[in-house]
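Summary for the funding panel

The consortium committed to producing paired sequence-structure records for every protein in the target list. Below we show the first two records in order, beginning with the earlier of the two.
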Amino acid sequence: MDDFLFFDLWILWLIVSLLCLIIELLSGTLYILCLAIGSLIACLSSFLGIPFEWQILVFALASLASVFLIRPLALSFLHRGEDKRKSNVDALIGKQGVVIETIEQNGSGYIKVDGDEWKAVSIDGLDIPKGTKVQIVRMDSIIATVTIV
């Protein structure tokens, strides 16, 4: 048994790598993937006849290097374009709506945008009568700042 482990350590590293890949499928963090990469590189070092103690060092260094080099690249590839999407009230900026309650001079009123009602103020502080089409130029919490379209 000891001869098997000594001469065929590459199988052990390959099994560790496969187990890490299976665990990565369950976690999705890409940290376990870095351990799988380290295991594969340690498997290659086993083929080269490097002693087991050095294989462990190769595993540790390759895993650590992949955390800092490969993981960020993989994350940027997997999550590309996500930061460009607007969400929440930021998605309302630029949308058009209709005044449903007159926006009074230097005061507020209400607008309807995509079926939702929002408190609104005029960007220039002027009256905007009911029924006027407006466009949202800024959102301050739940208050929309609008201009006449």
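The next record, for a separate protein in the list, is shown here:
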Amino acid sequence: MFVSENLSVNEKGNLTIGGADTVELAKEYGTPLYVMDEQLVRKNCRRFNESIRKFYGDKGRVHYASKAMSCMEMCRIVGSEGLGLDAVSIGELYTAVKAGFDVSKIGFHGNNKTDEELAYAVSIGVGHIIVDNISELHRLERIAKEQGKRPHIMFRIKPGIDAHTHDFVKTGQIDSKFGFALETGEAYEAVKEAVSCENVELYGLHCHIGSQIFDIDPFEEAAKVMLEFIAKIKNELDYEIQGLNLGGGFGIKYLNSHDPQPFEVFMERVSEVVKAECEKLNISRPFIYIEPGRSIAAPAGITLYTVGARKEIPNIRTYISVDGGMADSPRYILYKSEYEAVVANKANEERTEKVTIAGKCCESGDLIGENMPLQHAESGDIIAVCATGAYNYSMSSNYNRLQKPAVVFVNDGESRIAVKRETLDDIIRNDV
């Protein structure tokens, strides 16, 4: 009935998430409201952890891609489940540090890290820094020398794999702002230079081919390409790469028509490729990292809205306007991303309409979705948009000077605030 396993309907006919009544949550905390189910976050973390242990033993680790949903409470939860963390900015690093996260299990990403960010990452002792370009290597070498430290680095490599996804979220092909290209020899020349560096240690390689990918074949192909490069480095430079991060991007179920492969199937198939290629290439199996983000956070979250206006345009469409929009749910205007929605206070009724859910921002394209099956919705109803735990809170903005919503975590029916709703004074806090 619902795209996420943590959603149900109670005796009042209201939608529940993690045992909590969404209509009551809307009354208590207001809308728009982000709601995260702690137990499903933990369950997803454990599934990844169990599968990586099963197929890689003690030579693998899951890093949560915090860009999907980063706040102190999320860092505390994934950290308590034994996951590492991928951070892509000084803000994400600082959040993790303040949450008490083990910095030795953090990988620091970014295609254009500033000197301030690099210096901070080196000073706190992150596990490794994923270097994106040659100028970053030079700057990091200088910064590490200044601090008297020798950080581990990985190089982000473009393996040249087409991930069959939206152009904006493809990252593994040669025409990408991310990483070193293999085809041009750029990656090999960078490795040669890094091997001779005195103040950084080349520990591993990293690749990421895109996001919301349903096929496993591209992941298998990327693993082969990366291992062949590791073998080339060993054979020609007599240098052994210790770690290999195969990235994330695993697709999840946003609509009932979506049929993603279970995490465990991905892990098994790619691990078989890794083992076979290492044996064929006569190289030691590197320590394997993966970095799921969306697949941990998205199914665990929903966003609640209150319906304002209902506007019926005969023979055209029906607009259902809500008290949020692109400022708190930007993925539709960016990627035309599709969601399932439910009238939370009518969750036991059939979806009899197809509507366009419109946001309140001053943009014609400010929509949650078009032609969405929905129960009959009227002013005052509560709408839940499902599987929004990733990339909505983290990409939210103050466009039109709207206040960012609160984030609430639920656990077995009980709720707690993780991020407070912004106030009007928060909006003008930095104005002078």
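Regarding this second record: The longest helix spans residues 217-237. Residues 152 and 201 are 5 Å apart (CA to CA).
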